[in-house]
Each structure stands twice: as C-alpha cells, then as structure tokens.
Amino acid sequence: MIISRVYPYLIIELLEGQIVEKAYVDTGFEGFLFLPEEYEKILGKGDAPMRLTLAGNKIEWGSVYYNRKVKVYGIQKDGSKDNGMEKRGEIICYGKGSYLIGRKFLDEFRVYLDKNIEMTIMP
Q1: What is the rounded CA–CA span in Å between residue 33 and residue 90?
Q2: DSSP letters along 45-94, please?
Q3: What CATH number should be reported for the domain holding residue 23?
Q4: Cα dihedral sign for 62, 96, 2, 78?
Q5: What are 19-55's pLDDT values in tens digits?
Q6: Rounded distance between C-alpha atoms, residue 34 and residue 39, angstroms
C-alpha cells in the first residue's frame, strides 16, 4: 500500500534512482507515465516516435520508451519514502514540465482520494 500526503502526487523513480520526481496522478491520462522531453537526454533515443492528440485535437509527436521499469512511492509524514511499487510500462516524453501517472499504472489498483489531504493506493 502507498499513502501519499502530497495530494495528488506520487514520487516516481526511474533508472535505479537517476530520475526521482513528483508526478501528478491524472485519471484522464490513459497512458502509463508522461515526462517532459528533457528526459530524452537521460533515457536516450526513444524506441519509437508517438503521435499525440492534445487539447483542441492538436497533433504533436513525442518519444515513447516501451517496457521501462518505474518505481512509485508514497511520502510518509517524516518525509521518508516507503518501499514502493514497481511496474513496467511505456514512458512518453514530450513538452515542458509535465510529470503524469496515468491509468495504465492506476487501473489495477484501488485509489482512494481523501478530502484533498492524502491518497491511498492498494492492490
């Protein structure tokens, strides 16, 4: 179980700790994980280009990385991380400043949003 007291964010870790960021839990995003394009420098060349349909039906292109390991943590009251949940999925890099965890990660878990205070994720 993960409990995040930085509602509605979770801590994500990639590449054995090389990337540790706070990601917004977005139930409207159907993908797994979305990162800013600056992470292409760290992740390397993408496995493929991906066509993205943005608001207003605007078409853009990003990079996709398949079957990448991501570890997601909650944040405890004392600021320490819990043991986390590890899962593999696709990472999309595009644009500036967005860190999103989507439904491909969340849909197999129960997600409880408690009064804008904390979020609990359970298997």
Answers
A1: 7
A2: S-SEEEEEEEGGGEEEEEEEEEEEEEEEE-B-TTS-B---EEEEEEEEE-
A3: 2.40.70.10
A4: positive
A5: 888 898 888 888 999 999 999 998 999 999 999 888 8
A6: 10
Residue 89 burial class via C-beta count within 10 angstroms: exposed 0-12, middle 13-18, buried 19 and up: middle
Rounded Cα–Cα distance for residues 71 and 22 (Å): 12
Structural domain span for residue 83: 2-122
Contact 89, 105 (CB under 8 A): yes
SS (H, E, C) 31-43: CCEEECHHHHHHH
pLDDT by residue (tens digit) across 93-118? Answer: 999 888 999 999 888 888 888 887 78
